[in-house]
Amino acid sequence: MTGIRVDVSEAVKKLDPKTMERHLVAAMDGAADLIRAEIKPYPPKPPNSTYDRTFTLYKSWAKKVNRSALRAVIGSNVAYAPYVQDQDRQAWMHKGRWQTAQSVARDQARNVQRFIERALARW
Q1: Which regions of the chain does DSSP assign to beta strands (E)?
Q2: What is the SS3 assignment for 66?
Q3: Which of 4, 13, 21, 56 is most buried (CB neighbours < 10 A)?
Q4: Domain coordinates of the chain in residue numbers?
């Protein structure tokens, strides 16, 4: 009998959900690190400012990667963070000086997409 034999075992191995999850979680972790690094920096001090910075807000930015939901969250637990770095709640004195979480997310969206694309390419 004439026939063609096709071996898809290598392709099936690549479709393993655990492997996919591992690559995606690593990508999300890397993307979250990128976002976190971008949101943390303080702007230059205003001219003639006498305020001594504590860097509490800087140190408060953290990430949490939820494997089962395939989701990463970057946030700050400092009570005043929204008044400094939230687009909708930012106080007037911080507007135009401090970047917002939303602006960082928009600015880094393409880089986050690249992390995910590379993970899927490895899968």
Answers
A1: 62-66, 71-75
A2: strand
A3: 21
A4: 15-44+53-122
More confident residue, 33 or 24: 33
Q: From CA 101, how far away is CA 57, in angstroms rounded?
A: 13
Are the CB atoms for 90 and 59 separated by under 8 Å?
no
Rounded to two decimals, the pTM is 0.79
Res 100 pLDDT > 80: yes
Question: Are the beta carbons of 71 and 56 closer than 8 angstroms?
Answer: no
CA 75 to chain centre: 10
How many angstroms separate the CA atoms of 122 and 33, rounded?
20
Q: When comparing pLDDT for 25 and 5, which is higher? A: 25
Return the number of other C-beta atoms located less than 10 Å from residue 105's C-beta.
15
Amino acid (1-letter code) at residue 2: T
Where do runs of H (alpha helix) occur along 15-80? 17-39, 56-60
